[in-house]
Amino acid sequence: MISPPRLDAVPKVTGKARYAVDVRRRGMLYSALVRSERAHAMLGIIDTSRALRLEGVVAVVTGDDLSPLFPRYGHIIPDHPILALGKVRYMGEPVALVLAEDRYAASDGAELVEVSYQDLPAVMDPEQALAEGAPLLHAQDYGVGDRSFEEAHSEPRSDNVCHRVELSWGNVDQALARADLIVETCTDYPMLYGYAMEPYNALADFEDGYLKVITTAQHPFMVRDDLARVFSLPLSHVRVTSPYVGGGYGTKSYTKVEPLAAVGAWYTGRAVKVEFDATGAMLTTRADSARVTIRSGFDSGGRLLARDVSLTLDTGAYADNGPLVLSKASNRSFGPYRNQNVRVRGRAVYTNTVPSSSYRGFGAPQVSLASELNMDQAAQQLGIDPAQLRRRNLIPPGERHYPGKRPMDADLAADLDLLLEGLGWEAPCQEGQGIGFGVTASDAGAYPVSTAAVKILPDGSVLVSTGSSEMGQGSRTALALIASRELGVPLEQVAIAQSDTHATPYERTSGASRTTTLTGLAIQRACAELLSRLEMAAAEVKGGPLTEIKAAEGMVVGPWGDVSFGEVVRGWFGGNLGELAATGVVRRVGELQELPPFWEIGVSGVKVSIDPDTGQVSLLRLVTVADVGHAIHPEMLKGQDVGAATQGLGAAFFEELVYDGPQLVNPNLVEYRVPRAKDMPPEIVTIVAERGDGVGPYGAKGGGEGTLNPIGGAAAAAVGRAVGRWPDRLPLTPERVWRMLRGEEN
Amino acid sequence: MIGADVVEIAPVINDREVFLSVPVRMTLAEMLRDRLDLFGVKLSCEMQVCGVCTVLVDGQPVSSCTYLAADADGRRVSTIEGLAEGEQLHPLQQAFVDHFALQCGFCTPGFIMMAKHLLDRSPDPTRDEVVEYLDGNLCRCTGYAPIVDAVLDAAGRLRAEP
Amino acid sequence: MGVLPAFRLLRPRSVSEAVGWLNYDRLAYAGGTELLLAMREGLLRPTHLVDLKGIEGLGSVEESSGEVTIGALVTHTQAADHPIVGARLPGLAGVLQRVGNPRVRATGTLAGNLCFAEPRSDVAAALIAQEGEVEIASPQGRRRMAVRDFVVGPYSTALEPGELLTRIHVPIRPDVRFVYVKHQTAERPALGVALSVNSHVSVVVGAVGLSPQAFEVGSLSALDVAEVAARVEVVPDLTGSEEYKRHLVEVYLRRAIGRLERGE
Predict the structure, then answer these.
(1) Neighbours of chain A (3+ CB pairs under 8 A)
(2) pLDDT value at position B18?
């Protein structure tokens, strides 16, 4: 396939692309937050009087004002107060919302709000949170949100475990008992901030009896659901719109600041804008840190006999998407290997830290670090080449490695061979250099529910409507390409409307690498339906038996010759009027009955060089393999692969949110260091493997985060080989590598 | 009390002189976005690290998040909105399109304005010079390589222009 | 997004007018790269900013009687690009070309950099090693002092309220060989090492402690890097522990010496 220019490219290079943060309303109020200065405390008096006396301040909203509403949100566990309700659970939690005529008065007003606290003991990490007698963050039963998350349960809490997963098949203990070799790997994956450059923001207004919210959200339909519950509104009365999203990566999955803007609008009767800077965003959500222990048993030939996994995620103060991240982390922890005996025990733990949620990879990067390093360590101990050890165990195409789940829809061994060739694995490395690689398969695609609408207008042009968001991944272009290809209408004639809960059809989410595959399928189905409507309309207008009429490639062909789509529409309605429309639906039936809709394959690796004096790591080469069935837009796909790997390399070498007691030490981009241009390797190799083995259009299946999932483990292995010791944590800062070089324990 | 809390200024924004009364605490980014609807100027880290707010003031790149609007008085301010000639994209803009040097696009105006300054100063940079120069701008989507490719390509196109 | 706290702006036309206004709550303002950030973070709350940019004569780089004089309004970029600095102080020009990012260099001034006394800074260490001096104006007159004495601690200088740093003077010493190397893996350097060598050796270790630290030895061969690394004051932070940073001091001292010996 050739790669036409992105449909959003010109607006984005000219500064004309509008993001949620750019949307204004005449007469809207600006806002500023008063945030908790304590990690865990009962709220005392919130004195807003001085703030209210300040010129320009219109109102100050606190948790007490929310009593007429359902004052919390959370799609799995609705435990998250919009504004603190009697208690704060992390430093930085929103306590009061100051609304003012301009941004300066709002900010000055927020400084005048005085909050008193009665401290409670805080638990700052899972170890403290799980200790005997630890203070409880949540004692209350909040009920259950999203019923499609089947594991969700509701009960009063007696500990700080937010969610538990127990998963097993076979008999792990027996298999380990007869193993020739048992290898145990324990790793720590850092607490991360998935920095999307457009910080969280939303504009809310009650207008015509509807709540209208414009926000930087990946999943506007799920935000709508949370907002409808807050205000007891019918779903139809909440309109959530996402213009261009300035970076998502999972960090803008689910509800974030929309309820704040909405309660501000509800309280004042005016439009309200909530805008955070990056520090505010860092105090809103983060990614789970994880401690993962994997014990694997092998026979002497390198056959994997069993894996026993335990993992603990630091979920922070509120559940957000934590339970689902744990569930996915568990599913992704034992690797894409043939394995009769698996046991996974996972816990997501509440702590008095910024709530964590989904971030690109969704648990996979956290667990792959342990599971792939475990393979490397086993290979070393068995005296088998680590690539060979993987080949011996990788799940072959069509075979099921996870009972009850879809059989493997990829050729992992072939992908691995492509990767190793790109990395130059067979060639010896120089002193101080190392190569690492990894293979993962994630249950991606989320729950398969998508709808899309496609219309032919009287001039023959095409309008595609989808609830999916354009956040840089290129859905606008990829989905338009699918419609263009299905209808045979040139891409220039295809327009696309996206992510508006009033104006576009339902989309579950724009995440889990699902859009091209599942929304693409919905569009394909809508196009098929539309073509048959064109045929019926042509039969009516032009006459002739339906069996002799065929709509395809931009024309309707019948006994009377060729007519354009536009001509059929005009003929059917008369004049220059009307439009023909069709909807395509994707549900969990048929070939999508089995979950996941597809396995997202992650195959990537790096070659590194280490400065022996300082421990500083330089990247020499990055290689990514996209196993996506079919590349609808190869250049955008490669861009996703390199971008995802780069984010993973950030975690591998630089990024870590650090707490010192109750306080986040580095909630800003000066101290939280993300990858930069100079960090990138001089050699980047992007490989695309197309085998048509996905359920999506033309055999496509999802991509976009795969290369991130194994890259942390790959980076650790590369450093490990260069140094001669295996790391057990990320990021591999210069000091950590230096200590490894000196032979110290991590 | 001595000193001004509001000043009258007359900057030249994208070749057009404008007259504004601004609070002295207003940043240039706030003025461009809130007063002049120049939304191509973005805000993110607000600490001069990320570069999304980059504009040129008298030809020099500045972080408009940390630059007082009052200081723009009498100066020439260039933003991404002033780069194209009507429908005709600037070679840098065209190169960003051609190289898929953007995804979410939030960092794009800042990168293009920085690259504009680099190429104004150094029309034939090496790859290392481009990387070094753009190291102070963050992109979270692309992994940077296509951005560097685009800047080098644009440099070639600009040199080839009459 | 965060906004700047309220303040008022004063725009003096002369140094004497400026120093008449400066006090604890009225701070000198030029590029603002550090000051405005600190204000937005709530770390500084001046009632007034005294904008120096309207004062004539503070924006020039000049050479006279064996020294280069850099006015308080000269930005890092202007200094680095200036032909006098390039010809007479090439080592300093090299340091300035690598400060922060191009936007910080284009707006931030050397004088502001010194006055803010951010510990993780390149400029102070380089100027101390080059035996730079600052010229300070006050209602009482003018005084000159060594940069070494000017930077007294983190975010702390010898500047009294009401005083203004107007110029930086750097001696032209063609006989001196100068090198500056730094370890920077994050936004700000974790370590900077400046070496000046002629009849004696001046070593300045910056960024690793609360302020730049100077050591003098007779010759390069007499420079005991391990001893300097052991003596230097080190503040652990996210870029490294005390032990690691001491090690870095040793590594970068060796690197600096190596570069001098190779004539780089």
Answers:
(1) B, C
(2) 98
Residue C36 placed within a domain:
yes
Inside any domain, residue A186 = no
Task: State the pLDDT at residue A250.
Answer: 96
The closest alpha carbon to A409, from A417, A420, A421, A400, belongs to A400
In contact, A554 and A488? CB cutoff 8 Å: yes
Predicted local distance difference test score (pLDDT) of residue C47? 98
- Looking at the fold, whether A436 and A454 belong to one and the same domain comes out as no
What chain C residue is nearest to B110 in terms of C-alpha separation?
C103
Under 8 Å between Cβ of B99 and B130: no
- In terms of domains, do A469 and A574 share one? yes
| B17 plus B69 within the same structural domain | yes
In chain A, the percentage of residues whose pLDDT exceeds 90 is 96
Query: Could you say which DSSP state residue A355 is in?
Result: P
Interface test with C, best of B66, B106, B114, B132 (most C CBs within 10 A): B66
What does the block give as tokens for B146? 């296509």
Smallest CA–CA distance, residue A6 to chain B, in Å, is: 7
**Whole domain around residue A235: which residue ranges?**
9-121+204-275
Given A19, A247, A684, which is nearest B140 (Cβ)? A247
- C67-71 and C164-171: which strand pairing? antiparallel
**Distance from the A277 Cα atom to the nearest Cα atom in chain C, whole angstroms:** 4
- pTM > 0.95: yes or no: yes
A496 and A412 together in one domain: no
CATH label of the domain that carries residue A536:
3.30.365.10
Residues C40, C76 within the same domain:
no
Residue from B106, B118, B126 whose CB has the most chain A CBs within 10 Å, to mutate: B106
Taking contacts as CB-CB distances below 8 angstroms, the residues of chain A near C1 are 103, 199, 275-277, 280
Which residue of A33, A273, A614 to mutate against C (max C Cβ within 10 Å)?
Answer: A614
Residues with Cβ within 8 Å of residue A292, at least 6 apart in sequence: A186, A187, A189, A309, A310, A311, A312, A333, A366, A367, A369, A370, A371
Same domain for B71 and B100?
A: no
Residues B61, B109, single domain; the answer is no
According to DSSP H, which parts of C98-166 are helical? 102-107, 110-116, 123-129, 147-150
Q: What is the mean pLDDT of residues A404-424?
A: 98
Q: What is the pLDDT of residue A279?
A: 96
Given B25, B51, B81, the domain boundary residue is B81
Q: Please give the pLDDT value at position A143.
A: 75
**CB-based contact B45 A16, cutoff 8 Å:** no
pLDDT digits (tens, 9 = 90+) for C103-136: 999 999 999 999 999 999 899 999 999 999 999 9
- The average confidence (pLDDT) of chain A is 96
Give the pLDDT confidence score for residue A139 in this predicted structure.
87
The rounded distance, in Å, linking the Cα atoms of A637 and A572 is 40
* Nearest beta carbon to residue B47 from set C37, C51, C102: C37
Same-domain check for residues B50 and B26 = yes
Residues A728 and A676 in one domain: yes
pLDDT band at A150 (very low <50, low <70, confident <90, very high): low
Residue A153: per-residue pLDDT: 58
- pLDDT at C2 (0 to 100): 85
Rg of chain A (C-alpha set): 27
Does residue B1 sit within a domain? Answer: no
Residues C247, A738: Cα–Cα separation, whole Å: 10
Give the pLDDT confidence score for residue A2 in this predicted structure. Answer: 80
A98 & A220 share domain: yes
Please count the structural domains in chain C: 3
